[in-house]
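Holo prediction — flavin mononucleotide.
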Amino acid sequence: MDKTAKTTYPINDLATNRWSPRAFLKKPVEQEKLVSLFEAARWSASGGNEQPWRFIAGQKPDDTWDKIYSALNEGNQPWNQDVPVLLVACGNRISSWDGGVSPFFQYDVGQAVAHLSIEAQSQGLFVHQMGGFSPGKIRELFEIPGDFEALTVIAVGYRGDPDTLPENLKQRELQERSRKPLTEIVFSGKFGKTSEII
Ligand SMILES: Cc1cc2nc3c(=O)[nH]c(=O)nc-3n(C[C@H](O)[C@H](O)[C@H](O)COP(=O)(O)O)c2cc1C
């Protein structure tokens, strides 16, 4: 199974080899690796250096893991059963500059999770982000204050055997990865006009 990105232009190996598996080993993640993931997120850039990210971390079989798992939707629960680490990425909606809603908090948290994902890759780990969960249930279970929002759940662990997945998910696991071409996403002159850089 080759999930390596078939890039048009060369990029670094961590980005080429990152992808989002659903088959994970039961093997726990070493604490020294986990702290490096959070450290990478911590040093991410953010609007006004607000650092709106917060993470709730559960390690199977602790109570935090159980609570996060219980908030996953029906599509995500089956393949998360063996995932050793589940995180919730939360963001502070409120800007300390003016007390209003920050226009950047989701962008900032997403960027921190991107850094965490690349650090995971460098540690031999894989990450699978999920929007399929109940933010309301997470708020209730973890008593998340009103200024904060649960934005994604993140599975972290070592890659497992696709044969352990139900058939439909196994097919997706083996599928080649695809992306829009650069001609559709990089513009110059006006929006929609492919840049001459490409
Ligand atoms: C914000 C976000 C939400 C996602 N939600 C889910 C989800 O609920 N369930 C799931 O199986 N994958 C989810 N994914 C994974 C994407 O489907 C996956 O990243 C995308 O298909 C690209 O595949 P790749 O990460 O392997 O390159 C999500 C990814 C992101 C970034």
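READOUT: The chain has a mean pLDDT of 97.
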